[in-house]
Amino acid sequence: MSSSAKRKEAPTGNGGGQGKKSKRGTDKKWATQSKEGLIEGVVSPGETGVWVSCARGQEAKAAREVVAMFDEYAEIMYNVTQPGEGAEPASDEEEVDVEASLKRELDAMKATGKEAKLAGRIFTPVKMNVACLLFVRTRAPVEPVEFVKRICQDAKSGGGGQKKRMMRSRYVNRLVPMSYVGRATEEGLVELAGRVLGGVFDLSGKKEVVADKADSAEAGSTEPKGADEEAAKTDKSEAPRTFSFAIRPSIRNNKTLKRDVIINTVAGLINNQQHKVNLENPEKVILIEVYQNAVGMSVVDGDYWTELRRYNLTELYSQANNQGEDEEKTAPAADADKEQ
Question: With contact defined as beta carbons under 8 Å apart, do 307 and 297 qualify?
Answer without folding.
Answer: no
